[in-house]
Write a structure and sequence with these properties.
6-stranded parallel sheet; DNA-binding; homodimer; elongated; 17% strand; disordered N terminus; 362 residues; alpha/beta
DNA sequence: TCCCAAACTGCAACCGGTTGCATTTACCTG
DNA sequence: CAGGTAAATGCAACCGGTTGCAGTTTGGGA
């Protein structure tokens, strides 16, 4: 027994051991002493992958000793050696955006199942905060990054990407091809929304688009134009109204402006649900009935949009699935660095509720 | 220069250094070599608190070298030595409960400002998952736990508490007195709700209570009884209806059952907003008008309850504040272990919207 | 009974910092 | 210019595991 710490076998039985008279959480060396084996042997006995290197009887003794002492391995030490922390940095704009929690759950469920942990941080879309956050995560040596802040052409990517740390993007693709991403089928969603409105007889449809510097904003706007063309509907410049950000307030303001200048609009396709909620509020204030006067379609089907009045017709994206896929992609890349980076496109589904109705002549 | 790694000063200029021909993220030893100083000196030069132990000129040189190499300190190594990880375990029931994200933001904002990181995990109220989660967090040597799973009399607490790791509870108090907690003033909230209804002329008020094994469920039910007494209103056993869990479905079922047996009820106080949402749905299905036939009050004022129809009258609790206070309490305890454990009670406020109205004879 | 390979176990370097202590350098005084 | 002290820096142990390699035990065959 070379261990400096003494722990007479079968005496200690709590999750603290003693040096002199100071209690401390038990270490591998305590377990080794308790089981009367060398620390290296103890390590192998406790480690799934190396367990068959030790005699079964010894392994049992070590495991019992560990249990008796309430031993909890210090992953920090292992991480230091193995250069792997089993932790993933998750960079979000703002967790209180209801769109995100299900995604985060998806990420966490997949990660924890494999012994990983997510380190979550919010940037509030502030470049400075983001930089700090990434630096902090890098200092903690996360094995990879899952990034859900959706500004295009991100300088951060280069910083991270250089050291060869895997990255998975959520809800946007990178302009470079060495980074994986998970997105929903924006185009299909918008096409379904427009198609639904056309079927209801609408002809004057306006898109309230998201910010152009977010890939979702740009992609959905583009898809809207295409969908209109497919349906042989003209698209004037005024048929796409740009929002500065995805927010209720912006949706509200946009709607007010649209109806201040035009009065033939019978349907609105919002770039996301938050904008749509603003639209509903504005219509109420404008004494316009939804869906009788104006139909509204949202995007995302985030929680509770089925409970507002009128219940929102919207394009459902599988938020949990996005998170889960992103995490899985990350694990794949960590497990096998030769994994090709890829873009996973998840299907979407139009959920028709009460905010859309047949077009009536005005 | 004893460093094994060589890095000729002013050659390297990216965030990777080289051993032989293998690129790796630069370490302190690389920085030391680059600045032509000993690793110990480099450590002191980069560390705020020890910087004045080195010559200013040297400190500058080291800092420049670090910047040039894109050095990012490996906190794991430091943590191993200092036995402090600057990370806090946050145990939640389920992040997708809309009540939680603002709390989590509060926690994170306070923690990150001090260089700490939150490790978040969900338990789904499953004891087994919780045990695993706590074990995993313990293995990662978090400096403390913030726990928002609100079952009373938690065995987990004893496991954690034994090694002397600080704990802060959210939304409940512990039956033991060595654990701090942050709660909202449930009693005041319920009193305000009942008072509001009484002012509107309601006499037959029923409370749909939360689970009795959650401290919020029990406390609010107790407060309801007291508030009714204060207002000289009788409380029969049937005036408190127990839910198995805080959910829309339970609120729905409870309402159906209540109106199946009684028809004089004119007002309902729900133990939380989710139950209240279920109530609204049930009333609609029962062809009862809210607020004309029945008034409803919720609890929490979680996001979007102002957008449902009718907009929910509810008791607002400062979710962000709860999180922020909890984190602050945690930091206090970590900074000074002699800090007395305490219970912080945050004020609440009744937000009157459209789900309550004067009582009309039926 | 002896020998050898296979199975176990022990040894010690290593991960990347931090920090008490020893040593060197710089500077000041008599 | 010697001597002494303070400032600056170097040295090396340490945190708690992991792991390649060496040494020891075990078991089977000759």
């Amino acid at each position: 027994m070379t261990s400096l710490r003494k722990a007479e076998p079968s005496q200690a039985n709590s999750s603290v051991a003693t040096i002199g008279n100071v209690r401390h959480t038990p270490t591998l060396s305590d377990v080794a002493a308790e089981a009367q084996v060398h620390i290296g042997t103890a390590s192998r006995a406790l480690n799934e992958s190396t367990r068959d290197m030790v005699k079964p009887e010894t392994a049992r003794r070590v495991q019992e000793a560990a249990a008796r002492l309430g031993y909890s391995p210090n992953v920090l030490a292992g991480s230091l050696r193995s250069q792997k922390t089993a932790s993933i940095g998750v960079v979000l704009p703002d967790l209180t955006n209801p769109f995100l929690p299900p995604i985060v759950r998806g990420i966490e469920d997949v990660l924890t199942k494999r012994g990983y942990v997510a380190l979550i941080g919010n940037t509030d879309n502030d470049a400075g905060l983001e930089r700090k956050l990434v630096e902090s995560l890098r200092a903690r040596r996360v094995d990879g990054f899952i990034i859900a802040t959706s500004k295009r052409n991100h300088p951060i990517l280069n910083i991270i990407a250089k050291p060869g740390t895997p990255i998975v993007l959520i809800n946007r693709t990178a302009d470079r091809d060495d980074i994986s991403s998970v997105i929903s089928n924006d185009a299909a969603g918008i096409r379904a929304a427009v198609g639904h409105l056309v079927e209801l007889g609408h002809k004057h449809i306006v898109h309230i688009a998201g910010p152009a510097d977010l890939s979702t904003g740009r992609d959905r706007a583009k898809a809207f134009k295409e969908a209109m063309q497919e349906n042989k509907l003209p698209t004037n410049k005024t048929d796409i109204f740009l929002c500065e950000q995805y927010s209720i307030a912006e949706g509200y303001a946009a709607t007010k402006q649209i109806f201040a200048t035009r009065n033939n609009v019978t349907a609105l396709v919002a770039a996301n649900d938050r904008i749509a909620l603003g639209v509903l509020q504005a219509l109420r204030d404008l004494k316009l009935s939804c869906p009788n006067d104006v139909s509204v379609v949202g995007f995302n089907d985030m929680p509770f949009v089925d409970l507002v009045t009128p219940a929102l017709t919207t394009v459902r994206v599988n938020q949990y699935g996005i998170g889960a896929q992103a995490a899985q992609l990350m694990l794949d890349q960590l497990g096998d660095s030769s994994t090709v980076t890829k873009t996973i496109v998840l299907p979407v589904k139009l959920i028709v509720r009460s905010s859309t109705a047949p077009c009536k002549p005005r």
